[in-house]
Amino acid sequence: MLIASPIISADKKIEIFEKIFDQFEAVSMNFVKLIIKNGREEFLPEIARSFEAQVKEYKGIVPITIITASTLDSATRAKIVAKVQETVKGELEIEEKIDASLIGGFVVRMGDMQIDASIANQFNNLKQRLTR
After folding, report:
1. Model confidence at 5, in pLDDT bands (50, 70, 90)?
2. pLDDT tier at 53, thresholds 50, 70, 90
3. pTM here?
4. pLDDT on residue 110
5. CB-side exposure of 85: number of CA atoms within 13 Å?
6. Residue 6: pLDDT above 90?
7. Residues in a beta bridge with 46
8. Element (H, E) at 117
9. Could you give the C-alpha distances from 78 to 24, 51, 67, in angstroms and in order?
10. How far apart are CA 57 and CA 132, in angstroms?
């Protein structure tokens, strides 16, 4: 990978970044150059993710992930989204994932909060109560 390669010099990496990201503002490009010159380029992906999260927070965009055992129909999806929207101020950015191990139901993740209404979770809870 270009970013992590110790073989490629900082100057060459900067030259490559300038060509790839020629649409960057001067301040942003200078920041990237500074990161590379200080040998911290392996942190650029995490810096970008953090920046994106801060922009979303500033704009009032709340990313959520809905995980289900199979594809949701539009009515069920709308119900889940409506329930989540009641508790959130801002616009929801929804990502859907499929995880067959849930058996049924759904899991909603929003930041560090999780709502687990999956069948697998209910089985685990029942198992814990029965084995006490």
Report:
1. confident
2. very high
3. 0.73
4. 94
5. 10
6. no
7. none
8. strand 113-118
9. 38, 30, 14
10. 43
Give me the residue label for tokens 């697998």.
120
Least Cα distance to 69 among 31, 36, 107, 39 occurs for 107
Q: Which pLDDT does position 132 carry in this prediction?
A: 76
Assess contact for 66 and 108: CB atoms under 8 A.
yes
**For the CA atoms of the chain, what is the radius of gyration?**
22
Q: Residue 93 carries which side chain, given as an amino acid letter?
A: E
Amino acid at 88: V
pLDDT of 37 reads 94
Domain spans of the chain, in order of start: 10-56, 60-130
Say if CB 37 and CB 12 are below 8 A apart.
no
Q: What are the structure tokens assigned to 8, written together? A: 């490629």
**Which residues, including other chains, have CB under 8 Å from residue 89's CB and lie 6 or more apart?**
60
Task: Check residue 56 and give left, alpha or beta (phi > 0: left; psi -120 to 50: alpha).
Answer: alpha
